[in-house]
């Protein structure tokens, strides 16, 4: 019963949106885009916190000391420990992934 009127309203909406485009100035202000033809410079480089190295102990091969570089994040204290723990979990997760997945060749 309501299927045809709703379909008609949707079709009219799509047709009207194609016929009446958003004005160029309004679209650029909404999306905060530069004017067409304007050269856009590169954003400054950012280095996140990364694991730069690790130490494996000879007497206990399952004991690792990780070297975490803070990069540009300037993390310290608990925030650095939390980010380091997250990176270490990613490292160990990468070690557990097999080289080939038997189901995907």
Question: What's a quick, concise take on this entry?
Answer:
The protein has 105 residues and is an alpha+beta fold. The protein has helices at 3-19, 24-31, 78-96, and strands spanning 50-56, 64-69.
Multimeric state: single chain
Helicity range: 40-55%
Mean pLDDT metric: 82
Low-confidence stretches: none
Structural class of the helix and strand makeup?
alpha+beta
As a percent range, the share of strand residues is: 5-15%
Radius of gyration: 27 Å
> What is the N-to-C order of secondary-structure elements (H for helix, E for strand)?
HHEEH
Describe the structure in your own words.
By secondary structure, the chain is an alpha+beta fold. It has a domain at 50-96. It is built from three helices and two strands; from the N terminus they run ααββα. The protein has a two-stranded antiparallel sheet. The protein is elongated and about 75 Å long. The model has no long low-confidence stretch (mean pLDDT 82).
Blueprint (SSEs and pairs):
Layout: H1 3-19, H2 24-31, E1 50-56, E2 64-69, H3 78-96
Antiparallel strand pairs: 1-2
């Amino acid at each position: 019963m309501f299927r045809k009127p709703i379909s008609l309203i949707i079709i009219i909406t799509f047709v009207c949106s194609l016929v009446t485009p958003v004005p160029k100035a309004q679209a650029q202000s909404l999306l905060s885009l530069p004017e067409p033809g304007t050269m856009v410079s590169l954003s400054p480089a950012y280095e996140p916190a990364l694991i730069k190295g690790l130490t494996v102990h000879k007497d206990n091969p399952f004991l690792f000391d990780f070297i975490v570089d803070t990069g540009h994040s300037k993390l310290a204290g608990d925030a650095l420990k939390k980010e380091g723990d997250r990176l270490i979990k990613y490292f160990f997760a990468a070690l557990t992934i097999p080289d080939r997945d038997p189901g995907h060749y």
